[in-house]
Amino acid sequence: MNWNSIVQAILSPGPSVVISILIMILGLFFGMKVSKAVLSGLYLGVGFIGMSMAINQLVTIVTPATKALAKNTGINLPAVDFGWTGASAITWAWAVAFVFFAIEIGVNLVMLVTKTTNVVNADMWNVWGLALTGYMVYFATGSYIWAFIAGVIQAIISLKLGDMWSEEIENMLGYPGITVPHIEAFTAIIMWPVNRLMDFIPIFNYRWSAKELKKKIGILSEPVVMGSIIGLIIGLAGRYTIANALSLAITVGAVMAIFPVMAKFFMDSLTPFGTTMSNFMKNRFKNREFVIGLDWPVLGQSTELWVTMVVLIPVSIAFAAILPGNQVLPIAGVINYCLGVGGLLLTGGNLLRMLVLGIIYQPLFLYGSTYFTNVFTKLARDTGAVNVPKGSLVSWSSIEAPDLRFLMSKAFTGNIFAWIGLVSLLILFWFVYRSFKKNPVPSKKYKEQLIKKNPKSVVAK
Amino acid sequence: MPDLGKSKRIWTFISFITFILFGLAALLHQYWINIFVIIFGLLIKYYGSNVLFTKGKERRKYLKQKLIEARVISIKKQK
């Protein structure tokens, strides 16, 4: 029996269908009326489809501009960036990938029963991330056991990340009972030390939300305007015609205009599900507040998230051109969700911190993707899921958790320094987790912008 | 727009028109349609949000009040 084919068949309709059906089933299980459970699931599915369309549109329109930019500036990097879509395609084609499905569910059940997590992870679509880590470790060690251990570690980390963010997400979005256990938010851990340093620099301690920026720089802070300007710059830098550059600018602006609206729309419809689930859990499991783990687009209504990801596009291209030893030009993976989502959740939506952290940590992803180029290329060739011509290399420029994956790959081969690095990273994670448990809403520490007339007065809204 | 401003159905309709226009622009590669997406998107953001997303807003207000009562955040009066 080809379990891999069975799993792939179940997941083949895509995340919008799989997660919608899961939400409908969970809604019925928690006692929702059939009509409400079906509606919740449908709204979620429609919302995910809408968001996927918006994200794909952004990638589709930015990718050729990035290629043109590389061609016109003479940037010549050997590895082709096939983004998360390419990475997921080759991972699911790996014969052993289906095992990680069982690992994810098994770890989740064990942790729920032992009360080490309150997250019920409905984001089964992203199990491929676990499988990719497993393959990376298998590539380095030749051992399936170490690959499965790596999968277990990542599953545990994901669920604990979900626990860490749940209160902040409720505060940020206003929706109870959901969280984001996606491993891409692990970037927040490695960004934490610099974020902590920023606590001692006054300028980073003001409320730098998109709304607050508007008071300072007016219309330029409007995400539509910011996105359009970035789009225009990318188009002109790629030597597009004025018409094509304007098309790019308008499309990026449209994504910035529509995405937060789309996200709010379908998230509002999840409120009945979240409330019902919360009541069910309170009645049956005293002192436990379960949360449902969903894919990161539920955070899509955050303007700061999109501004950060779009502004970092030219930054990542610039870094790709100048970093010594880098082999990957960001194309399909040019929109770095890890920096956006990790920065958003770590800083509580402080746009200035998110941008500065994004600039500082962008090289990590380029070097990570360069390191794993051979891994991706071999997996692509072995599975045949993506056509890689002889002599070509493929990679994923915004690879999730490059630090964790690199250290696990190296450590499980017996490298003592990698073990020290891995243990240190996990200790840092534990420290950040504890810190978030004590102060789950990072945005509360930011002061309102000082009013010039009376610099001593500070008003919190 | 006092009547339009309070009608959730009309703003929902405008939202769906906006999504459809965005989809059309993507499918047909007629990116100039996005100008209307931007206009409608901004209209929804500044005039329609309060009508469409009241639940989220009330929930956030409730959560903020809880944080204030728990003295997690505080209100300071401007001098």
Helix and strand element order of chain B: HHHH
Q: Tell me how many strands of chain A there are.
A: 6
The N- to C-terminal Cα distance of chain A equals 60 Å
**Oligomeric state as shown:** heterodimer
The proportion of strand residues of chain B reads under 5%
Q: Give average pLDDT of chain B, whole number.
A: 77
Note the total helix count of chain A: 18
Strand pairing plus helix content of chain B: what structural class? mainly alpha
> Into which percent range does the helicity of residues of chain A fall?
55-70%
Which class do the helix and strand fractions of chain A yield? mainly alpha
Poorly predicted regions of chain A: 450-461
Strand content of chain A: under 5%
Tally of helical segments of chain B:
4
Q: Profile the largest sheet of chain A.
A: 3 strands, parallel
Q: Most extensive interface: pair and counts?
A: A-B, 40 and 36 residues
* Largest β sheet strand count, sense and barrel closure of chain B: none
Elements of chain A, N to C (H/E): HHHEHHEHHEHHHHHEHEHHHEHH
Order of strands, widest sheet of chain A: 5-1-6
Distance between the termini of chain B: 36 Å
Number of domains of chain A: 2
Global shape of chain B: elongated
Your description of this structure?
- The complex is a heterodimer of chains A (461) and B (79).
- In chain A, 67% of the residues lie in helices and 3% in strands.
- Chain A starts with a helix and ends in a 23-residue tail after the last helix.
- Chain A is built from 18 helices and 6 strands.
- By secondary structure, chain A is mainly α.
- Chain A has helices at residues 3-11, 15-29, 34-73, 83-92, 97-113, 127-141, 144-173, 187-198, 210-217, 223-237, 242-268, 271-284, 303-322, 337-347, 351-371, 373-383, 402-411, 416-438, and strands at residues 79-81, 119-121, 178-179, 291-293, 328-329, 393-395.
- A 3-stranded parallel β-sheet of chain A has the order 5-1-6. Chain A has a 3-stranded parallel β-sheet with strand order 2-4-3.
- Mean pLDDT of chain A is 85; it is low at 450-461.
- With 79 residues, chain B is mostly helical.
- Chain B has helices spanning 2-6, 8-28, 34-52, 54-69.
- In chain B, helix 2 (8-28) runs antiparallel to helix 3.
- The longest helix of chain B has 21 residues, at 8-28.
- The mean pLDDT of chain B is 77.
